[in-house]
Amino acid sequence: MPLLEPKPEALRPGAARSASHDRVLDGRAAGTPEPLRGELTELLGPEKVLWKVSDLVKYASDASPYRFVPQVVVVPEDIDDISAILSYAHGKGREVVFRAAGTSLNGQAQGEDILVDVRHHWTGIEVLDDGAQARIRPGTTVMRANATLARYGRLLGPDPASAIACTIGGVVANNASGMTAGTTRNSYRTVSSLTFVLPSGTVVDTADPAADELLAHAEPRLCEGLLALKAEIESDAELTARIRAKYEIKNTNGYRLDAFLDGSTPVQILRGLMVGSEGTFGFISEVVFDTLTLDRKVSSALLFFPSLTAAAAAVPRFNEAGAIAVELMDGNTLRASVSVQGVPADWAELPKETAALLVEFRAPDEPGQEAYERAAAAAVEGLDLVAPVASVTNEFTREAKAISGYWKARKAFVTAVGGSRPSGTTLITEDFAVPPSLLADACESLLRLQAEHGFEAAVAGHAAHGNLHFLLAFDAAKPSDVDRYAAFMDDFCRLTVERFDGSLKAEHATGRNIAPFLELEWGPKATELMWRTKQVIDPDGVLAPRIVLDRDPKAHLRGLKTIPEVELIADPCIECGFCEPTCPSEDLTTTPRQRIVLRREMMRQPNDSPVETALLDAYGYDAVDTCAGDSTCKLACPVGIDTGAMMKDFRHQRHSPREERIAALTAKNFKAVEASARLAVAAADRIGDRLLETVTGLARKAVRPDLVPEWLPEIPGAAARKLPRTSRVGASAVYYPACVNRIFGGPDGHRGPSLPQAVVSVSARAGKPVWIPEDVAGTCCATIWHSKGYDEGNAVMANRIVEAAWGWTAGGKLPLVVDASSCTLGIAHEVVPYLTEDNRELHRELTVVDSLVWAADELLPELTILRRTGSAVLHPTCSMQHLGDVEQLRTVAEACAEEVVVPDDAGCCAFAGDRGMLHKELTASATAKEAAEVNSREYDAYLSANRMCEIGMDRATGREYHSVLMELERATRP
Predict the structure, then answer these.
(1) How far is the C-alpha of 371 from the C-alpha of 534, rounded, in Å?
(2) C-alpha to C-alpha distance for 865 and 216, rounded to whole angstroms
(3) Binning pLDDT at 50, 70 and 90, where does residue 690 land?
(4) Which terminus of the chain has fewer CB atoms gathered within 10 Å of its CB, N or C?
């Protein structure tokens, strides 16, 4: 056993707990039962079968209010795997549910038997016809697809608020639309062709000219059944008219019966039916979209009204003026969104009755924009607008930052409001549509109904299309609360259908919570046709039972999840999944959402239960050790939940007093540690990589893998023993070379000045010389200790660097320029909680500037570019994302290179100081997509601005990355 093996018991919840009624039972502690586990392992291979109870629990929750624990999770790599899984399910009488991003709000990504993860191996986009079309794999997020299409001036029609996380497969399977899609830009209208696997295993490519012939040969009964249903529908004029009328407004409740009217052949009918089928008809393996023009001239306004009904009544004016989006937000939504970064703080003081419309116009050119702005001004005239707080302007703007802030507030509706709900309550998100002309009446009726049932709900929606969303919070552990929710749903569904002839699901798809009300909306004849359609396509009921069709009138009350309280930093989480695509460990172990989901299951368990023990045994590596601690999850989360900080705290809890003392000792004696590290790196050049890998490998086994770094061949040689000579007299700034740049040198193949020499030289050329204090050795930004949860060592170094920086900068009179983005973040922000009160005062007087900002804002305007390289690819680090200086990286790079590329798949490299040396598999997984994109072509320069991240990217790509400041020095060298 390693000398300093962490104890899982340290993370066992301390408070006495009673067993929750929806806990995972003791009998499931061993995970997937046999023979299911063994048979699937033999069929697919062990790496594609997730069977531990921790695997099952982390896939049991999604963004919906439901929770179902699967028997097993499988991770197919290709269509052959999908066909094998479906064949197995047919032969064994089992059920299959597909899951991609897990952002669905109605439980349609959850299964109780075989759950198939189709996110991990199913990403990619191919641009066709200069952007007019795009072939996209189902695990690709909408945001990722649009990032590629933007280069061609195109975008996808569907634009759900969850675009950062939701995937193309889910968007098509749910016919999700969003802010601007309405009924004309959604998936049903913009999908050109699909490739899908039917429950039988038959693969259909609807773009293949021979598709109908092939399908008739493979599935004659299916083809006959579909054509018979088509003939039956078309022979009923009343039913045909009803179907057409239902889709005049947004509607995703039930199956797309108009597919029988729009398609003339079985393949064409299936192409329409697959859209919005929620995984109950087959697996969509590829989608070809007809894309839309990206109009870049944008004018937007956030207009405030005295009431929700007043705002709703104004919507037709903006529709007539040509607005592409008219978004409604009520007072509860507006007030809750103050938790979103960038939203004005005074919104918290808005009256409860206040409502707002976010109105946006988009045009291809300046004349078009001016015409829209005139129409907008005419629409605003005579409206009863209010300005209850100082930040409200009620004016249209073209300013991108302001518009982005409006949309951040709107898109955070579910997460911001959900994050502010009472602790321990479950969140329900409802979605319905009425004819737009009845929107004001629907708002008034909804508010009245919510009050009658004791709910203070938040309301928002796509008002231009008569589509409203509202949130309800209740405690699923209390039967009385569940009864109250059930009574509300009965009344709400009757109100929507009987009074407004509306859609019970406008864009979120039927799911589990509206399935019992399907017949209420569609009537018995149409509903029975949906059942028969399911029977024709999936006669054995293998795919996603009970998700669209369910005859149980109380099905929506089954599986409601409790939300036990967890650590304060994570307790507001509504499990939306927005954090997952940004997480470096998403394809290796767990995501931030899953880390929280696993913690909540521990809280559902009674003390010392077998399930709790099994979860704790896995949690150490899967959650704590393989968290990069980069906190990019905080940036993606609309309410700023920092799961990385929680994992660092868990690391601290696992430390023994002895470990904490040793860590504090290294901080106190860091000058000697730094010198020794530099000498060791220098000696490594003479020893050789293989021997060092062996020695460090043995040390990791003897001490602990999470404490002893593994030697990597990509580690560069040592930095120069002495830093460049500088003078304090006349200095424009204090330059702080980070300890990593004092220990490690540049790339082995780099010829030219080191990074410290480059910063000194280029600053002097710009007429803004910098001074390097002589006593920087022995100081550090404290990230070494902070990232590992060593609180005492962190406090020692945090206070030391602030005291030193205050002295160096003459009490903050000069800026402190730091040459590694993670160190800038550490000194500027992360040290603060660990400072004494006196040193917090000193810190407030400091101006900490990242070297990128220094170069872009202060040096570039004074420099002459003498030479440029041809092409450069950038790696923006996670610290740059936190600091907000990615644009400065691009600005400096564009001065140095003719072509600058930021990969669409750029993300955190997970090297995280030395974590990439502690768990190299983490960096390998985190960088795989970016590395593949980088290596798809050659570049003249590979640039970043953080030495350890550059080493991580060196390892991932086989290229040599270096600081953009070194490139700037070369470009301006006389």
Answers:
(1) 49
(2) 66
(3) low
(4) C
Of 22, 288, 282, whose CA–CA distance to 134 is shortest? 288
**How close are the terminal C-alpha atoms of the chain, in Å?**
59
Distance CA 405, CA 402 (A): 5
Residue 400 backbone phi and psi in degrees, to 5: -60, -40
The three-class DSSP label of residue 261 is helix
Contact 332, 456 (CB under 8 A): yes
Q: How far apart (Å, rounded) are the C-alpha atoms in residues 251 and 236? A: 21
Outline where 266-322 has alpha helix (H).
266-274, 308-321
Closest CA relative to residue 945, chosen from 896, 874, 887, 867? 874
At 741, the amino acid letter reads N
Q: What is the DSSP letter of 151?
A: T
Q: How many residues does the chain have?
A: 974
- Of the candidates 124, 160, 131, 130, the one whose C-alpha atom is nearest the C-alpha of residue 145 is 124
Helix (H, G, I), strand (E, B) or coil at 116: strand
Q: Is 927 left (phi over 0), alpha (psi -120 to 50) or beta?
A: alpha
SS3 label, residue 974: coil
Residues 739, 822 contacting (CB under 8 angstroms): no
Q: How far apart are CA 724 and CA 771, in angstroms?
A: 9
Judge residue 949's burial from the number of C-beta atoms within 10 Å of its C-beta, 0-12 exposed, 13-18 middle, 19 or more buried.
buried
Tens of pLDDT along 898-931? 999 999 999 999 987 778 778 889 999 999 999 9
One-character DSSP codes across 685-754: HHH-HHHHHHHHHHHHHHS-TTTSPPP-TT---BPPSSPPP--STT-SEEEE--HHHHHB-S-TT--S--
CA 726 vs. chain centroid, Å, equals: 45
* Spatial separation of the C-alpha atoms in residues 896 and 890, rounded to whole Å: 10
Q: What is the pLDDT of residue 295?
A: 96
Please state, in angstroms and rounded to a whole number, the distance separating the CA atoms of residues 579 and 638: 9
Question: How far is residue 693's CA from residue 695's CA, in Å, rounded to a whole number?
Answer: 6
CB atoms within 10 A of CB 495: 17
**């016809």: which residue's tokens?**
129
Contact between 248 and 465 under an 8 Å Cβ cutoff? The reply is no
Cis before 974 (ω within 30)? no
Q: Give every CB contact of residue 441 below 8 A, 6+ residues apart in sequence.
A: 500
Confidence (pTM): 0.94
Give DSSP secondary structure letters for 221-236.
Answer: HHHHHHHHHHHHHHT-
SS3 of residue 661 by DSSP: helix
SS (H, E, C) 886-915: HHHHHHHHHHHEEEEECCCCCCCCCCCCCH
As a whole-number percent, the residues of the chain with pLDDT over 70 amount to 96
Expressed in percent and rounded to 5, the helix, strand and coil fractions of the chain are: 45, 15, 40
Q: How many CA atoms lie within 13 A of 52 on its CB side?
A: 15
Beta-carbon count within 10 A of 920 CB: 17
Report the alpha-carbon distance of residue 902 to residue 661 in Å, rounded: 43
